[in-house]
Structures are given as structure tokens and as C-alpha cells.
């Protein structure tokens, strides 16, 4: 079952007062769906989408999360996640690490027994993320429009349970990603994912390039787009 939750206001969460600012995060939505990409693709997952992002990738499909949202306490987020009754949780955005309380949320989700992944642009430091979290770092390609925002220092922090993702818009993007893969020996550090920007590049072309070059990567399609297109909360 897929749901989009109502914002956690003081009344809806059963509190007499709003949480202190240092205990809050701004949330665009919390919903249950299938994970559409990365290694847990196809698994029922609760998504916690934080509001705000300092990047403006030309292919972004969640621009609605740039602004707005509602303030939630971490306790309210944990309760809403638990209500859905699944183990896997994905904290996403926007750019979730742009909110400093994201680190505490990730830690609390792990403490609650969830298997947690973090979808991050890689433009911000991932070093303080709880080591139990699988960090899915999206390295921005030339045609994303945000390549200069890549924080390459993050690459040496990657662990085997982390993932690097390349979203490709062109042959140039593919060749750049291939060069990054080899230069930084990414496949020996973590899982490497390649996918296409939906509608901008033929998936069969990327699949053929990967096979021809015998790259040690995992090609992926965005399952949620194939099933529901760009429906919010899916």
C-alpha cells in the first residue's frame, strides 16, 4: 500500500507544543513504496523526503521538494516510519544532508532497527553519517549541470556497503563516468551504479556500452518511473 502522510503538526502528533527548533527537520513527505533504484530496488521501503537542496540538476524530478514542507520532530518521524511496518528506510530529498539534524535522524533510524540508506548528491561531506547507513552518493556528470559541486574527498570515505551512482544524459557523461570509475578505482571501494536520465538517453545504448567496455558496474533502470512515471509519493 502506498500512502502520502499528512504533516506532523503539534496537534496531529499529540503534543502540547511544537518541538524546539534544534529537534526538528523540514519534511516534504513520508510514504511507503517500492525502492526504485540502487541495490534494494524492488523492496518495500519507507521514504523520508527532506525539504531543500542547494543543487539544481537539469534533470531533477523532485523539484517540489526544494521549498515548503512541514516541521517534524525526530520522534514523530520515527513513529510515522514505524507505522508502515517495513524494515527498509530511505532518507532522501532534495539534499537531506543540507539539514544538520539529518545526521541525528539517520542514527535514530538505525537504533530503531531499520536498514537505512541515504540518497545524497555527494556535494556535502558524508564523513559524519552513521556507519550503519548505506550512503548512495550521486556523482554529478557534466550534463547534470552540477559537476563542479562534486566533493571528491567523499570518495576516499566510501565503504563496501556504500554505493556510487552515475545518472547519464549523453555519451560524454558515460565516458566521464567510465574515467572516474577507473581513476578512483571505485569498483574496489563500493557498488557502482549507472542509470540513464529518463527520456534523455536510450537505456539500450548505455547497456551496450557497459557490456562492450566490460565495466564492473551495475546497470539499472528507475523502477518507480517505469511503474508510476513521476507520480509524487510513489
Automatic annotation (TrEMBL):
* InterPro entries noted in UniProt: 7-CO-7-deazaguanine_synth-like (IPR024924), Aldolase_TIM (IPR013785), rSAM (IPR007197), rSAM_QueE_gams (IPR027621), rSAM_sf (IPR058240)
Q: In Gene Ontology terms, what is a biological process of this protein? A: tRNA queuosine(34) biosynthetic process
| Swiss-Prot/TrEMBL keywords | 4Fe-4S, Iron, Iron-sulfur, Lyase, Magnesium, Metal-binding, Queuosine biosynthesis, S-adenosyl-L-methionine
**Care to name a GO molecular-function term for this sequence?**
4 iron, 4 sulfur cluster binding
Cofactor binding note of this UniProt entry: Binds 1 S-adenosyl-L-methionine per subunit.
Instruction: Give binding positions for Mg(2+).
Output: 62
Q: Write out the residues that bind substrate.
A: 34-36, 49, 92
Which residues are in the Radical SAM core domain?
Answer: 40-230
Where are the annotated coiled coils located? none
Residues binding S-adenosyl-L-methionine are 59-61, 94
Residues that hold [4Fe-4S] cluster according to the record: 53, 57, 60
EC number, as in UniProt: 4.3.99.3
Q: Which PROSITE patterns match?
A: RADICAL_SAM (PS51918)
- Name the cofactor(s): S-adenosyl-L-methionine; [4Fe-4S] cluster; Mg(2+)
Q: Name one Pfam family in it.
A: Radical_SAM
Chain segments carrying region Disordered: 1-21
**Annotated pathway:** Purine metabolism; 7-cyano-7-deazaguanine biosynthesis
Residue spans of biased composition, Low complexity class: 1-20
**Which NCBIfam families does the entry link to?**
rSAM_QueE_gams
Briefly state the protein's biological role: Catalyzes the complex heterocyclic radical-mediated conversion of 6-carboxy-5,6,7,8-tetrahydropterin (CPH4) to 7-carboxy-7-deazaguanine (CDG), a step common to the biosynthetic pathways of all 7-deazapurine-containing compounds.
Family per UniProt? Answer: Belongs to the radical SAM superfamily. 7-carboxy-7-deazaguanine synthase family.
In terms of HAMAP family, this protein maps to: QueE
Note the subunit structure: Homodimer.
State the name under which the record lists this protein: 7-carboxy-7-deazaguanine synthase
**Organism lineage:** Bacteria, Pseudomonadati, Pseudomonadota, Gammaproteobacteria, Lysobacterales
Amino acid at each position: 500500500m502506498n500512502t502520502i502522510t499528512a504533516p506532523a503538526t503539534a496537534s496531529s502528533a499529540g503534543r502540547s507544543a511544537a518541538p524546539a527548533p534544534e529537534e526538528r527537520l523540514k519534511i516534504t513527505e513520508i510514504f511507503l513504496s517500492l525502492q526504485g533504484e540502487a541495490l534494494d530496488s524492488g523492496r518495500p521501503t519507507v521514504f523520508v523526503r527532506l525539504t531543500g537542496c542547494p543543487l539544481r540538476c537539469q534533470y531533477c524530478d523532485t523539484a517540489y521538494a526544494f521549498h515548503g514542507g512541514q516541521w517534524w520532530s525526530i520522534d514523530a518521524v520515527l513513529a510515522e516510519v514505524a507505522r508502515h511496518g517495513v524494515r527498509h528506510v530511505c532518507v532522501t530529498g532534495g539534499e537531506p544532508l543540507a539539514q544538520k539534524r539529518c545526521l541525528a535522524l539517520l542514527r535514530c533510524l538505525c537504533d530503531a532497527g531499520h536498514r537505512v540508506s541515504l540518497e545524497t548528491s555527494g556535494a556535502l561531506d558524508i564523513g559524519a553519517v552513521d556507519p550503519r547507513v548505506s550512503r548512495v552518493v550521486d556523482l554529478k556528470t557534466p550534463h547534470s549541470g552540477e559537476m563542479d559541486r562534486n566533493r571528491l574527498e567523499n570518495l576516499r570515505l566510501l565503504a563496501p556497503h556504500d554505493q556510487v551512482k552515475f545518472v547519464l544524459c549523453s555519451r560524454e557523461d558515460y565516458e566521464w563516468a567510465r574515467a572516474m570509475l577507473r581513476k578512483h578505482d571505485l569498483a574496489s571501494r563500493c557498488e557502482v551504479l549507472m542509470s540513464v536520465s529518463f527520456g534523455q538517453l536510450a537505456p539500450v545504448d548505455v547497456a551496450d556500452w557497459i557490456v562492450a567496455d566490460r565495466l564492473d558496474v551495475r546497470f539499472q533502470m528507475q523502477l518507480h518511473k517505469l511503474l508510476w512515471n513521476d507520480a509524487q509519493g510513489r
